[in-house]
Amino acid sequence: MTVDVDFNAEVAENWAPLVTVDLRYVEGDFEQKRFDIAKDLKEACFGAGFFILVNHGIDDPSLMYSIVPKVLSLSKDEKLSFKSTASVDGDYTGYVGDGSGNNVEYYNVGKFIPQFQKPHPEVIKQHYDEIKAFSHECHRVALQVKRLLAIALEIPASASHSSRRVPGSPFAEHYIEDLHRLEDVSGDHLRFMRYPAVSAEVDAQRNNIRVPAHTDYGSLTMMFNPRVVALQVLTSTHWRFVKPTPGALICNIGDTLQFITGNVLKSTQHRVMRPPGDLGGLERHNLIYFSRATDTVRLGAVPSPFVDETAGEVGLTAGEWVAKRVQATTKRIDTRTDEDRRKAEAEYDQLQRVINEKQGYAATSQL
Fold first, then answer.
1. Domains of the chain with CATH codes
2. In order along the chain (367 residues), what is the average pLDDT of each group of 10 residues?
3. Contacts (Cβ under 8 Å, ≥6 apart) of 128
């Protein structure tokens, strides 16, 4: 359902001040323009950690959006037959939710490599080739952003193998890209997400918070811009809504990139609220691509003049970090007894303390 939003004055005056990054001249013989774009991205990612991406070249996502209600309106038993094993082994692919349709739920399609081949519902199988092509386009754009980040971080050309150097460029433009290769095992996935219609009374019991404050686990998140306002980001000490921009992507840095840059790139707290005004009671659909580093990448500092060489080390690989975060998060959803729930909450809180320490945030419960 497409809705033209009439923003109330309070919302319209308090948009998050996000930088717009234009990818039009990233590829090709446009070195100076590419460097200029990298400056815009530097401003965004050294500061807010969120930005608006335009001229990305990804095809119209209408077909992908049409899959959301189809796959998530299946019966409870059928959805649960494709349930993710995330709480056991950290594999986030498949269905995540309680199957009832009364709470936020989503279906994740992972990388199209042998390690992630698994059964899917018929609607996913019917559009498998289109989903694959769309996911690969998302991966292409994510790599372009990472190329710009390497320039923004001024990673020296000497840090890359000679075969990966860009002639004439002083920077290792492909350095961060090479931590995210398409053919490598990693937790990249395309998410088909559904927020059910919820009454104002029910939302009020949760302070109108649909998804609590959190940071994202991986490297880069790209959300296809919804027409309904609901996403808020933490700017300084204030929560502000993100303004929808038709055709653009809402992007944010994840924990992995913040760790390997010693907090230079910001993985910013964000949350999902009840949409303001009359739109609060509508069902909403989201389409999100999550980019993650190759599982075997160590979470150590990248060679940048902005990054302390001792920064970022958490003693884990990217895959281990994501698996721990995913397991801790989904165990909170999947537990059935009070004792198991307490254990899951304690494990999650321990990981959250690690994040808070690395990122300089107060405890999530205070946000």
1. 14-360 (2.60.120.330)
2. 43 84 84 92 96 95 97 96 87 90 92 94 98 98 98 96 89 97 97 94 93 93 89 91 94 95 94 89 94 94 90 79 82 59 63 60 36
3. 120
